[in-house]
């Protein structure tokens, strides 16, 4: 059995969305901040106790002003992840804005709220301050992409929700990494990684492939 699930990952700039995906896909940690332009699309395949599950993950640019494009990017998403940075109050405040933007297009999808960078000692958003996930019925996870802390949890939760199977689990593979992520997609440097630099024309061209 093989299933493909489209996920969108949104949130303010520099919260760690691209680093999160690269960490899961390749195991590498990206120290540099290289702003995403438009969106990046990653294909990730997980081995699970229910067979192979392929994710098509759309990571949006946090500082993209081309909001008319976001509808196109969100279209057909079956799950969402909203990331903020626990060292920046502004990124937590903006969760509201991202949530509303997403449900405008995808009304009833499971959404995970991710608080990243919990490794930083001087955090500005404490766990007790985080409540908006209850209001919006989101699942909340604290993660550290840097230290690989809980980074597979958002995917596992979304997978379980979409497939309606609370017992679904990831299975480690000899040639994969800790979470059963297969390396068969070849990482972000090959054709499964697109950067939509030129907006919609480029997007349509890619979609035809
Ligand atoms: N301390 C710490 N830094 C992190 C962590 N995750 C990511 N970073 C750093 O945060 C910076 C921003 O990461 P990106 O993944 O490029 O941010 P982004 O959310 O994709 O930003 P945009 O593409 O502009 O929307 C990088 O310098 C990362 O190394 C983490 O868990 N802990
Ligand atoms: Mg990025």
Automatic annotation (TrEMBL):
Superkingdom, taxonomy of origin: Eukaryota
Keywords: GTP-binding, Nucleotide-binding, Nucleus, Protein transport, Transport
Pfam families per UniProt: Ras (PF00071)
CC annotations in GO: cytoplasm; nucleus
PROSITE patterns per record: RAB, RAN, RAS
InterPro entries for this protein: P-loop_NTPase (IPR027417), Ran_GTPase (IPR002041), Small_GTP-bd (IPR005225), Small_GTPase (IPR001806)
MF terms in GO: GTP binding; GTPase activity
GO annotation terms (biological process): protein import into nucleus; ribosomal subunit export from nucleus
Annotated compartments: Nucleus
Family in the record: Belongs to the small GTPase superfamily. Ran family.
Role played: GTP-binding protein involved in nucleocytoplasmic transport. Required for the import of protein into the nucleus and also for RNA export. Involved in chromatin condensation and control of cell cycle.
Protein name: GTP-binding nuclear protein
